[in-house]
Design a protein that fits this description.
Number of helices: 3
CATH topology: Jelly Rolls
CATH class: Mainly Beta
Shape: elongated
Number of domains: 1
Distance between the termini: 25 Å
Strand content: 25-35%
């Protein structure tokens, strides 16, 4: 039976076959010099102290994808925001933090599903601060192109109700200069969900 144009155009918003769409789930940690390990994606929207708002996470359940959803992660995104302008001396502190902090995707009962330095995730092969040796010196360094997206050659599937977290471990204390800064991780891919 041939459908009318109106019936054809009305299909798709709600249906019994489920849907597939692009999706990023994200979570954010606040840096503190005394905190060595940050566990992201474990506290849902509205949880924690202070309560996580949508700008800090879009996880509706802590540590797992909701029932009826499956995310094939194809890229990891990383975001960093300072709470104020960095002093010149603190630029190197930030660079050291990016070099010595690692990110791991953890699924309980499995070995790590991936591990990277933040330097690699941000796409920064060179991090160097420069101090002019004489007034007027302006010799440019090779500049890194911060892009903050790490594509995955093999998608990582986060199935419904399977526990997971992204663990950031600071192997060198971040120092008071970075206290209060925000670091966020986004897991981007194809979401399949029942409608």
């Amino acid at each position: 039976m041939k459908q009318s144009n109106l019936a054809r155009l009305a299909r798709g918003t709600y249906g019994s076959g489920g849907e597939v769409l692009d999706k990023t789930i994200w979570d954010t940690a606040i840096l503190l010099a005394a905190t060595v390990v940050h566990r992201l994606f474990t506290i849902p929207l509205g949880g924690g102290v202070p309560a996580k708002t949508l700008d800090r996470t879009n996880m509706t359940q802590g540590g797992q994808m909701p029932q009826g959803q499956n995310l094939a992660v194809r890229a990891i995104k990383i975001f960093y925001t300072t709470i104020g302008a960095l002093a010149t001396a603190d630029v190197q502190t930030l660079y050291t933090f990016l070099r010595t902090c690692t990110a791991e995707i953890i699924l309980p009962g499995k070995d790590t599903m991936g591990e990277w330095t933040l330097m690699e995730l941000m796409g920064t092969p060179l991090l160097a601060a420069e101090i002019p040796t004489a007034a007027g010196d302006n010799i440019p360094l090779i500049s890194s192109r911060f892009h903050g997206i790490m594509p995955l050659n093999t998608p990582l599937v986060l199935a419904a109700l399977t526990p997971f977290e992204v663990r950031l471990t600071c192997h060198t204390p971040s120092g008071a200069a970075l206290d209060g800064d925000f670091i966020g991780i986004g897991l981007t891919g194809t979401l399949q969900r029942a409608s």
